[in-house]
Design goal:
Elements: E1 7-14, H1 19-31, E2 32-41, H2 48-59, E3 63-68, H3 77-80, H4 102-116, E4 121-123, H5 139-153, E5 158-160, H6 168-177, H7 181-187, H8 204-220
Parallel strand pairs: 1-2, 1-4, 2-3, 4-5
Helix pairs in contact: 1-6, 6-8
The chain binds zinc ion.
Zinc ion (ZN) binds next to helix 8.
Catalytic activity: 7-carboxy-7-carbaguanine + NH4(+) + 2 ATP = 7-cyano-7-carbaguanine + 2 AMP + 2 diphosphate + 2 H(+)
Protein name: 7-cyano-7-deazaguanine synthase
Binding site for Zn(2+): 191, 200, 203, 206
């Protein structure tokens, strides 16, 4: 979309500083004139996640809202049943700090914020393709949430999910189309061990991310990996 037809309405991006939401940030900048970011602080695996998100927001000159969601830790399995349980990541890539309906809660807060800052559009990097294990990341849920948010505040919100039907390879392709593949590759944090960029290479998140990047670069005929 050429700059001349940028949508002048405001968009809020649900932003974690990871590959997916950073790609969404650039997607938002491409399509909307005014973009703000919201990050949820809920005791992430690494505090680095908040720092990475803040740095990217600053780099891009975007207003960044950080909302305290630490109450979510009261709903994790280790808080409810096993107080001394170690934070671990299962083979499926789902950490045992997972809170059911987390995305429902996040989108509710993003909606309340969007209302306050007068943003009609909410952009989130949820995706059915890679993480179909989370029911509140599915397209049917997002559509239902869109209706619910609009009814709850009597506003016409539009939730955008540019990554919904993309696999990791296609997400890299999108960042390349947006001209930010290198930026996304070197400045975002996906790794469960808190290593920015290409990460530790060993954890499930790194493996998924690298497999996608390899495939995309290979497909593009770029051997620079
Ligand atoms: Zn890793």
């Amino acid at each position: 979309m050429p700059n001349s037809v940028l949508n002048s309405e405001k968009a809020i991006v649900v932003f974690s500083g990871g590959q997916d939401s950073t790609t969404c940030l650039f997607y938002a900048k491409r399509h909307f004139k005014e973009v703000e970011l919201v990050t949820f602080n809920y005791g992430q695996r690494h505090n680095t996640e908040i720092e990475v998100a803040s740095k990217i927001a600053k780099d891009q000159g975007l207003k960044h809202h950080i909302l305290d969601m630490s109450l979510l830790s009261q709903l994790t399995p280790n808080a409810l049943t096993k107080h001394d349980m170690k934070i671990e990541t299962g083979e499926d890539g789902i950490p045992n700090t997972f809170v059911p309906a987390r995305n429902l809660l996040f989108l509710s807060f993003a909606g309340a914020l969007a209302y306050q800052v007068n943003a009609k559009h909410i952009i989130t990097g949820v995706c059915e393709t890679d993480f179909s294990g989370y029911p509140d990341c599915r397209d049917s849920f997002i559509k239902s949430m869109n209706v619910t948010l609009s009814l709850s505040m009597d506003r016409d919100f539009v939730i955008h999910t540019p990554l919904m039907w993309l696999d990791k390879t296609q997400t890299w392709e999108l960042s390349d189309e947006l001209g930010v593949l290198d930026y996304v590759r070197h400045n975002t944090l996906t790794c469960y061990n808190g290593i920015i960029g290409d990460g530790c290479g060993e954890c499930p998140a790194c493996k998924l991310r690298q497999r996608g990047l390899h495939q995309y670069l290979e497909q593009k005929g770029d051997a620079s990996l």
